[in-house]
Amino acid sequence: MAGGIVIAASGNKGYPGKLTGKVFITCIVAAMGGLIFGYDIGISGGVTSMPQFLKKFFPDVYRKEELNIGGTNQYCKFNSQTLTMFTSSLYLAALVASCFASIVTRTCGRKISMVLGGSLFLVGAIVNGLATNRLMLYIGRAFLGCGVGFANQSVPVYLSEMAPYKYRGALNMFFQMSITIGILAANLINYFTSKMKNGNGWRYSLGLAAVPAIIFIIGSLCLPDTPNSLIERGKQEEAKERLRKIRGVENVDEEFEDLVNASIESKKIKHPWAKLLSRKYRPQLIFVTFIPFFQQLTGMNVFMFYAPVLFKTIGFGNKASLMSSLITGIVNCASTLVSIFTVDRFGRRVLFLEGGVQMFICQVIITICIGLKFGVNGNPGVLENWYALVVVIAICVYVAGFAWSWGPLGWLVPSEILPLEVRSAGQSVNVSVNMIFTFFIAEVYLEMMCVFKFGLFIFFSVFVFGMTIFIYKLLPETKGIPIEEMAEIWKAHPCWRRYVVDRNEKPPNVMSYEMTEEVKIETKEV
Ligand code: BGC
After folding, report:
1. Residue 49 pLDDT more than 70?
2. Out of 30, 415, 459, 502, which residue is the most buried by the measure of CB atoms under 10 Å away?
């Protein structure tokens, strides 16, 4: 059974070192990069549901909503191309920026990319906060997008390189944690600014994006670069010293040697993008493409971008909608902690699989609830309290499932499976695919809601089903394997072996294959 294999390859080294306070703090600071991404995800939905914002920038949508033009069909109430463009334009900019970020991250170091990311985001926040017309809104969002592109390209890589391999999962997930804190902060801010009497609440919501940007810029300026990046740029001595400091031990020779070897290999490669397409890197290419694709096709961002709009659509009042999106924000944030505490103990696969099943069940329940009440014509009549409660609970359980599986793992796994020579390029593919499909969901969601009606969540559940099988069959466990040793897991995996092992090369000394159904098969050297 291909998928159920946990591999302990002979190359599984145990570098000495511990989780030092320095690394812990460094990772928390670097993870702040997630704040800017999260803040933006959380703020757009609330802002686009504020009447004063709509009246000023999107009067057509405002009229449609306020005057109930378009009838009582709740499914199509908010469908406006210009409005969705506001939310989704950022992701196009992020997608382009992440490709440039790959070059900067590789040649100038992770830290420079992070500082640049924060600075671009800051410019975007200022332009948006001062916006007087639609053009300013879009320009601001382009800057915000570039900031997100740079930050998302560099931060996960930085975290995975800094962390001792035994704690890599948890430390990398600080990134997701700060995404969720950013989303929650934005939800809270929207909740208060929407009540402002002067009609300028949206301005505060958009302008306050400057705060996470400033935190991230200052934090990044204080951070050291990773040993991997220093070696990559020829600063060997400094790198060894850095490694000693962050591992908290004198003897880092073995890890250092492996990093140097990885760097020598990496230097031989002049075109990392082309290299990533070669057969040898097929498993990495597949995962850095499909993991972000599937992460977005879980449908999570329907809730993150449009929770207030969605809750309004299914009959909640203005206040109740913002309140409910606040609740999903809290669940999202709290559930991420579960993955931080479990990922290095139980591994990535368990979380991926459990989260997938949980999301699937909730999507079916949500579909039934909305279908029963709204039918195909979208006229629900009176909504009882118990009904609203069931929908909110199902959405919260779904959000929790995402928050401890595909959310954090969608950033962790791609960043830890890439060898140094294609790490920056591969991470850009990850960010770009993520952004393309984030854009896609933001763009088409309102249209899809109008066309698919209550069947919308069935659409996503089909993908959730597919992605769970995909992980089960194809992803080997990456827990507890040093990042520069990761090549071994593909050599020992029945599906990926033929791509990565040269015909003449001896296969790795695979110690054991452990089947998920508790069946253990001991194998000798094949
Ligand atoms: C995803 C975002 C999503 C967020 C929700 C992230 O991992 O990339 O698209 O909005 O999680 O917490």
Report:
1. yes
2. 30
